[in-house]
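Notebook, bench 3.
Goal today: get a predicted structure for CBS domain-containing protein from Amycolatopsis suaedae so we can plan the truncation constructs. The sequence was checked against the plasmid map this morning, with no discrepancies at the termini. Length recorded as 428 residues. Pasting the sequence as submitted so the record is complete.
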Amino acid sequence: MAGVNRVFAAQLAGLPVFGPDGESIGKVRDLVAGLRLDQQAPRVLGLVVELATRRRVFVPMLRVTAIEPNAITLATGSVNMRRFHQRPNEVLVLGQLTDAHATLTGTDTRVTVADAAMEPTRTRDWVLAKLAVRERSTRLGLGRRRSSLQVLPWGEVSGLGLTDLTGQVQGAGQLLMLFDTMRAVDVAATLRDLPVKRRHEVADAMDDERLADVLEELPEDDQKDLLAHLAEERAADILEAMNPDDAADLLAELAPADQNRLLELMEPRESAPVKRLLTYSSDTAGGLMTTEPVVLTPDATVAEALARIRNPELPAPLATMVFVCRPPTDTPTGRYAGCVHFQRLLREPPAELVASAADTDLPGLRPEASLAEVTRYLAAYNLACGPVLDAEDHLVGAITVDDVLDHLLPGGWRETGLHDVTEGVPHA
């Protein structure tokens, strides 16, 4: 498929499908695309192929090795003979997308979809990048005026939602199935585009950990709206599941009475670090730091340190640094002894003690350090994460580059959306 850069769905209808040795498989009857709730072009998942027995089966796009004007060739391997069943978040391009009604983005112009073009990406995926649309016909006396066909990028056509195309009311459970494959930041962006009622239904159906991750990626107003919708007991559970610094940022936006009530409902062990963070100004190291860095005692081994930073739930910036402290290891810790960058850990024997590899010369930040000081500190020492120490050299938290960026970006950057932020950046 090296020379193919755009294929219209109508061109594929009825094309014969052959195996790698030239054996006949069947004929293309449709394309299956995975619908999205944002304006990004949906990914083409595969083909619906009708066998000689009239059974229709699904063939993933990754199995397709060649698309020619008169045939499609598949890679080596067996074809799953189970009958094709459409999933809730899938659309049939020819059967459902073609002839669908929509509008041109930012206008009142109503159009009808005549065809859809798929294009390959650098990751071997195919996406429905273009739509061929025609303005809805208008009567002129006894005849009709047929408007010209336009080929537009997917994002310039609005109104092609899940409900419109599949004829199904997309329930919270079906939306959660779609969200399972998405990053929390993308789920948050999608939630903001939903009606308030549906947004609340989805939040009610999410488990606490997932909702906490998504809540951290929402703008403040949307965070407060969702938190106010939840029952107070569940709201407290969600705050416990959030990173302490994110929970503190959210609580700081609430009225004092609401803030105190939620803190009282939280488990004391979970609320203690949040209360401590609330005592700092939001634009200082103390207000920006997390209270849950990776902390080990001096007698821990390099192997133990590597095991800790392998935790897939640990945010990437926190995984770059291990802090060595005297007991206790919960912040505020015992006396701080130094830190070890993960690259240093990779070069040390697994049985070596982390204390022997600790950098004792890297200065720490004080909780009252300003945002400007924190920014210069991370830039000067080329760090993604750094220690925050009190006057008695106890580790009280760690500052990470993502929290600094969050405060350096213009206000309302989350409302802008990732699509606008990354516009013009090539897709991976």
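The first helix runs from residue 9 to 12. The radius of gyration is 27 Å.
Flagging this for group meeting.
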